[in-house]
């Protein structure tokens, strides 16, 4: 009976491990980097890297995706922040990006961490 119980416990752990690995692999990850160009924008697009922000600088997804309940599958910013209008008190996309990004970059610089702080450091000519 001891060997049979050991085998059953081993199988349960193996199945749990496989399920955990498949859940991590199933998380939706955007292409890297994403190019953020808003309609009517005068500056070049911003090439945004989730890897740089989440893995290298350890910023939690919820810091930007602040309304998402499922941080494993966050919605794009423009789902709530529309391009040309304010909806449900959510600022326009450009205003939201600038507030979140610039404030965070200023906080990083104040802490001694390098972060772009000028327009042309994020809006780079192609």
Strand arrangement across the biggest beta sheet: 1-2
**Quaternary organization:** single chain
Summed up, the helix count is: 4
- Given helix and strand content, the structural type is mainly alpha
Protein traits:
126 residues, mainly alpha, Cytochrome C3, 4 helices, 43% helix, 5% strand, elongated
How would you sum up this structure, described in words?
- It is built from four helices and two strands.
- Strands 1-2 form a two-stranded antiparallel sheet.
- It starts with a helix and ends with a helix.
- The mean pLDDT is 85.
- The chain is mainly α and 126 residues long.
- It has a single domain, classed as Cytochrome C3 (Alpha-Beta Complex), CATH 3.90.10.10.
Summed up:
The protein has 126 residues and is mainly α. It has helices at residues 2-26, 50-56, 93-110, 119-122; strands at residues 34-36, 46-48.
Annotate the secondary structure layout.
Blueprint (H helix, E strand, L loop, with lengths): L1 H25 L7 E3 L9 E3 L1 H7 L36 H18 L8 H4 L4
Antiparallel strand pairs: 1-2
């Amino acid at each position: 009976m001891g060997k049979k119980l050991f085998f059953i416990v081993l199988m349960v752990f193996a199945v749990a491990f496989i399920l955990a690995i498949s859940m991590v692999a199933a998380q939706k990850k955007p292409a890297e980097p994403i190019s953020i160009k808003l309609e009517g924008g005068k500056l070049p697009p911003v090439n945004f890297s989730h890897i740089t922000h989440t893995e290298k600088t350890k910023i939690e997804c919820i810091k930007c995706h602040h309304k998402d309940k499922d941080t494993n599958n966050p919605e794009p910013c423009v789902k709530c922040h529309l391009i040309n209008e304010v909806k449900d008190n959510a600022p326009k996309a450009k205003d939201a990006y600038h507030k979140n990004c610039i404030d965070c970059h200023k906080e990083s610089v104040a802490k001694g961490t390098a972060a772009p702080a000028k327009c042309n450091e994020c809006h780079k000519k192609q």
